[in-house]
Amino acid sequence: MTEIKIFDTTLRDGEQSPGVNLNKEEKLEIAKQLERLGVDVIEAGFPASSEGDFQAVKLIADTIKNSTVTALARTKKNDIDRAYEALKNTANPRIHIFLATSPIHREYKLKMDKETVVKTSVDMVSYAKTMFNEVEWSAEDASRTELDFLAEIIESVIDAGATIINLPDTVGYSTPEEYGQMFKYVKENVPNIDQAILSTHCHNDLGLAVSNSIAGIENGAEQIEVSINGIGERAGNASLEELAVLLHIRNDVYGYQTNLVLNEIKRTSDVVSKLTGMAVQANKAVIGRNAYAHEAGIHQDGMLKNSETYEIISPALVGVSSEESNTLFLGKHSGRHAFKDKVKSFGIELTTDELSTAFNNFKELTDHKKEVTDDDIYAILMEIKTDASNIDRYTLENFRINYEQDGQTRAYIEVSHPNGEKTSNEVIGKGSVEVLYQAIQGVISEQTNLLDYQTSSVGGGKDALAESRVQIKINDKRYPGRGTSQDVLEASANAYFNAINRYLMSEDKVTQTTGASI
Ligand SMILES: CC(=O)SCCNC(=O)CCNC(=O)[C@H](O)C(C)(C)COP(=O)(O)OP(=O)(O)OC[C@H]1O[C@@H](n2cnc3c(N)ncnc32)[C@H](O)[C@@H]1OP(=O)(O)O
Ligand SMILES: CC(C)C(=O)C(=O)O
Ligand SMILES: [Mg+2]
């Protein structure tokens, strides 16, 4: 099986992402994690670009033992000297020299003709070769370069000592077919090409970085330049994790192998995201928060029956733990099978009727709340398990709170009584919870005394459930009550009725109906 070398440029091209600025300690932490991940080459930085980057590359070169460490240099003696100074103590140093070859870069940026581009590249590769065994040379903007000129300059730099030839799609312009054809052309038209390894370096401006990298290796490249989380200049580079997992999962199609330790992928992604401050989008392939989450009821049912119905990558393959993978995400589109599975995971037993009620309550909540958390579901289940639903009870049917202009608050409630009758009541006073509770007291026949009242939020987010807890005293006995709702006042009313219903349950009471009949 052909081995594909992984050249990681997170610390060089990745750091060129706008807004990213890593200090040397942060770069070292990422480099150590890249070494654990098993990347073959770590591009640690661009030593001539600043003293800080020089120091970071040096620290990494002095520390990393199991990966080749490389650094970028322009075709300038000073850049090459700085790279050598930074890299000289590493076990296996490599320099990465680049010069643009395309007409637009030659004419407008470099102001060099073809001959000068060839001569400068050859001179600097020869110069670097006096210090480094491994010399990588990149034809910046290769994919927009005339193919015959590309072949000519590649032959010259290989003669000068380049051992790795990188052909970047610098501006992410190529299609996979064009990019693959460029490698094929170079393979067929550069006489000394067998003395060098070909490499891809793809940018994601048109979302083709991964596909183009594959086209490159299918046409002779044996190294791919990639970055963690796909970070890099503009829309970023080909993502390491996507290519690594693609080559693994579809080995039947491609038949390539890498030295990567796949289950280090998630940790590496987390470290890079944290230290660069670049969040990973939720639906990002392989490492996004949603990459292993299934919300649709039909998918969840399939997953419960056989995970391969909807999952081609096992989260564990890339080091995503079962807690992180959030496999069955309960939300608006979930069905009974997944809900039942969640209830089971809490160790809670429900009767068929209770399950039905809990599922309906859950579905109702999903219409109001974007993300239903485990805490939300637990609150629903607890309410059902501790509810006096098997007895005749008070139920809040409707309520309104109005804030009057004179600072007074008006509470209106409609209540079903244990005997099935419905009454209403209206109270004006100060404070919304207070008038609400006064209105409730006005429709029930029991004499209650409120001892304690607390409200807090359950679950996360600004749309979290409110949970209210009360203690009431009836005939010298205390009764706790709990109520949940998205609305704080409704949760408060539910808690009060829950306490009264507990009293009814314990005393087996039949109560008098009060309040205006409706
Ligand atoms: C495709 C890529 O990702 S290439 C890598 C890009 N990365 C970076 O640029 C990050 C680090 N860069 C830097 O810190 C700075 O640009 C430096 C220190 C390298 C140079 O800074 P300055 O000397 O102020 O030059 P500046 O960046 O404005 O312009 C670049 C110069 O390098 C020249 N140049 C560009 N590429 C090369 C090259 N491969 N070889 C030689 N010269 C080059 C440009 O033509 C320009 O030269 P000019 O000043 O004679 O016009
Ligand atoms: C320096 C080179 C390799 C580069 O990053 C590019 O061309 O995109
Ligand atoms: Mg690049």
Explain this structure.
The chain has 518 residues and is α/β, with parallel strands linked by helices. It folds into 3 domains: 275 residues, Aldolase class I (TIM Barrel, Alpha-Beta Barrel), CATH 3.20.20; 89 residues, no CATH class; 123 residues, Alpha-isopropylmalate synthase LeuA, regulatory domain (Double Stranded RNA Binding Domain), CATH 3.30.160.270. Helices cover 40% and strands 21% of the residues. It contains 18 helices and 17 strands. The strands form 4 sheets. An 8-stranded parallel barrel has the order 2-3-4-5-6-7-8-9, surrounded by 7 helices. Strands 11-12-13-17 form a 4-stranded antiparallel β-sheet. A 3-stranded antiparallel β-sheet has the order 14-15-16. α1 runs antiparallel to α11, α6 packs across α7 and α12 crosses α14. The chain is elongated. 44% of the residues are buried. The site of magnesium ion has 6 residues, from loops.
Question: Key features?
Answer:
518 residues; alpha/beta; Double Stranded RNA Binding Domain; eight-stranded parallel β-barrel; four-stranded antiparallel beta sheet; binds acetyl coenzyme *A; binds 3-methyl-2-oxobutanoic acid; binds magnesium ion; manganese; manganese ion binding; EC 2.3.3.13; cytoplasm
